[in-house]
């Protein structure tokens, strides 16, 4: 029992020593941790104090950055007109009516038929009888000019009909989806459908890409050909010659039905030529014809009228308060 008691005393004493030693290390570590946390929090609450060399370098970098931004803005402004901030909402409403009438006349002269179920107002239907909010007038006026220019470009390209036109509401208007995606680049989408030849479509797209008045982005494009079947054979027997008869004076081509009448009752080729001549047509066969690019197509587009904001228009972020700077992370 004496030996057991001695051993037990040694075990208990050793455990106590190690427990006391571990607690001391733990306490020292915690005090060091608390001191470092306190130092970090103190530094977070203080504003940094740069030395003169670093301060001058930062100021010089800011000057170069501001100069580069201003240079870019000046370059962009040569390709986009400034906003008319002096225009009243009553003047804008009258301008819409004038622009609509002028474009309708331009479309009639250029051969564009506007096929719309409702009266066409260049997408500004609500302002035919209502006044816009004064703060929206500068941007709406810019959009009006851009739409008028865009559709005149369509007329110049030779479009035959425009069957639908829609302008998306901008932020601040009734029905707008929300704010602009970017604080520097604003986009005003329009969507419409037109019909014409492939040459019309090609000329219109090229004109958009090279426009010097406004920035246009062709975001959505859907093209449907009026002909859904392949080209017919050149001749019934599969030969490579396309049989045709032409009036040399009027350049009229005889229809397939008329040629079939001349061939009725087993007429020989010579008899067919004679019948055609009696009606003023001569044989004018050709060994080739154009198969692609002559069809009429229906085109649906979504175009973003794009405007780059100047440095004075971009909202500056709010500076952080002392409370935010000293907040725990």
Question: Summary?
Answer:
This protein has helices spanning 2-45, 52-77, 89-110, 137-156, 198-209, 256-262, 269-278, 322-325; strands spanning 113-114, 161-167, 185-197, 215-225, 245-246, 282-283, 296-308. The protein is α+β, with helices and mostly antiparallel strands and 329 residues long.
The secondary structure category is alpha+beta
- Main β-sheet: number of strands, strand sense, barrel status? 5 strands, mixed
Strand content: 15-25%
How many structural domains does the protein architecture include? 3
Unreliably modeled segments: 321-329
- Strand tally is 7
CATH superfamily of the largest domain: Ribosomal protein S6/Translation elongation factor EF1B
Query: H/E order of the elements?
Result: HHHEHEEHEEHHEEH
**Kindly state the mean pLDDT as a whole number?**
81
CATH class value of the largest domain: Alpha Beta
Radius of gyration: 40 Å
Helical segment count: 8
Examine the coordinates and then state which fold CATH places here, giving the name of the CATH topology of the largest domain.
Alpha-Beta Plaits
Strand order of the largest sheet: 1-2-3-7-4
CATH-defined architecture of the largest domain: 2-Layer Sandwich
Oligomeric state, counting identical vs distinct chains: single chain
Which outline best applies? elongated
End-to-end separation in angstroms reads 60 Å
The helix fraction, in percent, is: 40-55%
């Amino acid at each position: 029992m004496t030996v057991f008691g001695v051993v037990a005393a040694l075990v208990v004493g050793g455990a106590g020593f190690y427990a006391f030693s571990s607690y001391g290390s733990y306490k020292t570590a915690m005090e060091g941790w608390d001191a470092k946390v306190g130092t970090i929090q103190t530094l977070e609450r203080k504003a940094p104090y740069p030395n003169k060399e670093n301060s001058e370098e930062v100021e010089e970098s800011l000057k170069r950055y501001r100069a580069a931004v201003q240079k870019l803005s000046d370059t962009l402004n040569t390709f986009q007109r400034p906003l008319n901030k002096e225009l009243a909402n009553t003047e804008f409403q009258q301008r819409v009516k004038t622009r609509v009438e002028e474009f309708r006349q331009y479309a009639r002269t250029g051969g564009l038929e506007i096929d719309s179920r409702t009266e066409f107002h260049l997408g500004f239907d609500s302002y035919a009888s209502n006044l816009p909010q004064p703060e929206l007038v500068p941007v709406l006026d810019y959009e009006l000019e851009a739409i008028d220019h865009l559709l005149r470009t369509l007329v110049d390209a030779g479009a035959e009909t425009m069957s639908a036109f829609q302008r998306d509401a901008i932020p601040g208007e009734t029905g707008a989806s929300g704010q602009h995606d970017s604080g520097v680049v604003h986009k005003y989408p329009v969507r419409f459908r037109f019909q014409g030849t492939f040459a019309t479509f090609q000329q219109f797209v090229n004109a958009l890409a090279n426009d010097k008045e406004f920035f246009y982005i062709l975001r959505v494009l859907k093209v449907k050909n009026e002909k859904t079947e392949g080209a017919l054979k050149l001749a019934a027997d599969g030969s490579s010659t396309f049989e045709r008869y032409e009036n040399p004076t009027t350049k009229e081509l005889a229809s397939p039905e008329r040629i079939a009448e001349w061939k009725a009752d087993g007429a020989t080729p010579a008899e067919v030529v004679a019948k055609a001549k009696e009606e003023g047509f001569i044989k004018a066969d050709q060994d080739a014809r154009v198969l692609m690019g002559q069809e009429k197509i229906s085109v649906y587009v979504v175009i973003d009228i794009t405007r780059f904001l100047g440095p004075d228009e971009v909202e500056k972020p709010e500076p952080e308060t002392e409370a935010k700077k000293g907040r725990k992370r």
